[in-house]
């Protein structure tokens, strides 16, 4: 658990670079990370996950400007998800695909919340990786994965057509990616959970007058949440639902 948590923190630190640069079309490997305000390069000792944020008191060492709370949140969330994956799946053949999926979902969630955008550079390769892993490992199997890709994408395609653009194409590709990793049965569970969660949050926002009926609410984070829950507990939920 400790090893997975540390690896997750490091992956989360890298994801912060992905979240900041991918939507702008910039490279993620180089140049070195720098303060977005003063441009000063960040030294390695100021880039230690969680610890550097606390020691710097959430401020840039050079200019003193505040550092976004998003950075430690992404690092901590990724670390905790890695631990949860290890706890649920153990050191099994399912662990690596789960970690890859969770890593991508964290990045997509943060980008969609910040920019209302799900980059194709994350979702489309995710579809290919999900199909490839399913073919190699047999979990959930290439046919199940292929059907999941088609079902996950088709549902949102129909919604886009019916709503005349009320939902973006990024959600469609994210649904297809979840289907590639989870298979067609569990992607249906993921979509159902995401609709329930998104509807509940929308009702609360409307009741609090934080959003109007015509205001857009990013759906990617809810779909990512549904995908993560379905990854860990989708099969028991499906069996319970069918039993009821």
Task: Please explain how this structure is put together.
This protein is mostly helical and 244 residues long. It has helices at residues 2-21, 51-55, 70-89, 95-115, 120-137, 142-163, 169-182, 184-207, 220-243. 69% of the residues lie in helices and 0% in strands.
* Terminal Cα span: 35 Å
Q: What portion of residues belong to β-strands? A: under 5%
Mean pLDDT: 93
Number of strands: 0
Give structural attributes:
about 240 residues, mainly alpha
Question: Could you write a compact summary of the structure shown?
Answer:
By secondary structure, the protein is mainly α. It contains 9 helices and no strands. The longest helix is centred in the C-terminal third of the chain and has 24 residues, at 184-207.
